[in-house]
Input
Amino acid sequence: MDIMLLTAFTAVLFLLIAAAEPLAARLRLPFSVMLAAVGILIGGGALFLLRTNVTETLNPVAVGILSLPIRSSVFMYVFLPTLIFQATLEMNIRRMMDDWVPILTLAVVAVVAATLTIGFALHWIGGLPLMVGLLIGAIVSTTDPSAVVSIFRSLSAPKRLSRIVEGESLLNDAAAIALFGLFLTYVMLGVPNPQLGEALGQFPGLIVGGVLAGWLVARIALALMSLFGRFETAQISVSVAVPYLAYIGAEQLLGASGVIAVVVSGLTLNLMGPGRLAPAFWVNLKEVWGLLAHWAGALIFILAALLIPRLLGEVRLNDLFLVGVVVIAAFVARALILFVLLPMLTTLRLSPKIQRPYRVAIMWGGLRGAVTLALALAVTENLRVPVETKRIVGILATGFTLFTLIVQGTTLRGVIALLGLDKLSPLDRALSNQVVAVALQSVREGVASVTENYDLTRETVRSEAKRFAARLDNAVEAAEAEDNAEILDRDRITLGLIALAAHEREMIVQRFRERAISARLSEQALFDADRVIEGARSGGRTGYQRAARRNLRYGPAFRFAAFLRNRIGVAGPLARMTADRFEMLLGKRLILRDLHGFIDRRIRRIHGRRVAELLHELLQRRIEAVETALEGLRLQFPGYAEELERRFIRRTALRLEEREYNALRDDGLIGAEVHIQLMDDVRQRRQQSEGRPKLDLALRKNQVVRQFPLFADLDDAELKRLSREIRTRYVNAGHVITRKDTPARSVFFVASGAVEQEVAGQTARLGRGEMFGQMGVLTRRIRKAEVRAITPSTLLVLDEAGFRRLLKRSAALRKAVRDSVVGKTVAGEVLRMPELAQDAPLGENAASG
Output
């Protein structure tokens, strides 16, 4: 094809891509359906021009279009890695981990189920060889849920639902393409009906090889990007190479799945990149990749759709019957997953509940698209595949894709409306009215300030103010009427909590943009804020508090890191996570304190004083829980919090200095040369301040012991000895520290946090400076109490021998033990012990005698 014609055609394609998006919005069709329609029209039009005698003038153009070098390798090696890699960069991996069960179910189990169902249906009903049927099943199992995701977003569907569908879109391509490569090998070898277990047994090897290749390429890329820290375009160029090197390396060198390698490389960069690269660069990187993926996705759809008329050129009546078999089998397989397996997982509490209307929308929104056509094209181009197999694969894959695009794609919005998913719930309507009312009040204050500053005509100002006041009154009345008519008191509180958590999220984003917090920690903070928002939406006040408590817990990764340090001696992961937790708690405390002002400025205006006071109370509880967790770390690592606070102040000062220099430049008070020099100086000092102080995990137990009230009367020698004997233990909220009917071998001292003790059906709470477990140790009886942490807590643990020695040396501890047995049946037995009797009052000695 002539290079000028190819260049012109490419330019026209970009114009069509630009026009397709607004046209799809106007026609209320999914963007992918519009792109496919454009491609089919171009391909069909070219065939029509060649076969008609109407005109021969456009024949060169038609020949040029039909002779475009569109090969499956272009899709697989150029466009596909771009799409998958960009999707992994945009994923909120931490939020996806909450829903990993339904995501893997839809992405992997559903793909395998659809492949097997379609393959056996074509084998039993259509008479095709089993391996050909399975190959077709793998090809058409790659869903393109971008249409349903975009509609869910436009309908304000729950974020969790959108995340599940997006996670499926990423991982099901990897699973389906891996199966496709496996079955294609058997078809090329001419093995029509091999042992299915033997075929699937090779699947783990494809995955493991892809994981290794993707991880290795991403780590090398991160090292290079760190070296090019001052050159943003160089870093972005390195990132562009990552998916292609991962894909080709896995496919050609390891014989593994290139798609899985691209997924793993993107996930690795997503997890590790924000902590190693500058925040501003990370934002720009994702914007660049977003544009690349938009172009790649549009081009792959149009170019693949160009091939549809050619792929359907030899269709027969029996082929249409087989297309119907594929359609029915695909729907049956997807329905079994959505309406049988997912509810079972929900019943077993392995998956969040997905409402039936949303499951119907997910099933109907499982469109097939460019990836399906690209895989079918790869089969039709393969010289080692029999001619009849190539024909049937091309027709069935293309026919099924057309069915999903024409039938499902064009009716998806109607199905959404029929299910009632396009209507706001009463709670969402009230939230919308609240936003409008609050926004208009702020606008009124801003307009009043502007009119006063510019000294506008009084009559004009009065007239416009009257009109605006009427609109504001209507908005406030609508919000209040909605609350009074349909929203219960608890829902008003829920609305306030959602607004509060949403503002918390905005503040986190603002702090990140101001570089007050790092990109990696901002992602964790946003993850926590999203969890709180969803908790408030689903569970109101209880859900909000539960999510807030969960955000402060030590997660499985932290416990695993502690295991590595304590048992294996690997301290790096625990030091990094502890430092992250320290910094996160400091930042969270500052943000939460600022939220009190938001409650008074905004929420009180709409929901009233009573709701505002309750929100103040709930917010204060969160602040106290954060401070408790922070105090536990302060006790363990004295001085580290101070270093982090100093770093925060330095970073804030640099941010304000940078803002001042920009303002001076914008006002023309300094020139570009001076501004560049000043900004270089700020950049150098920022690089010095970005480094976080190193956290020494060696516990300063002697300092912790010195701060403990019960050990205040010990001299330095005794404190040093106690520091060697005592152990520390960190527990999450809800963790059972001691259980009933177990031997008592240790005494616990609460260094930070709080615990709840239950004895004979009665509960008592113990806080910092208090102890428990001493009764069982002194009496050597089986424990009668169960103790559970109610906040993340730091405990000091002393064994029986050490505790008895400590009793002999500490009068304060002896007094605390005597006070703790007052009124208990074991009081006489305990007070007669030599350790306690040495300085007991005369009355107590006489009583015990």
The radius of gyration is 33 Å.
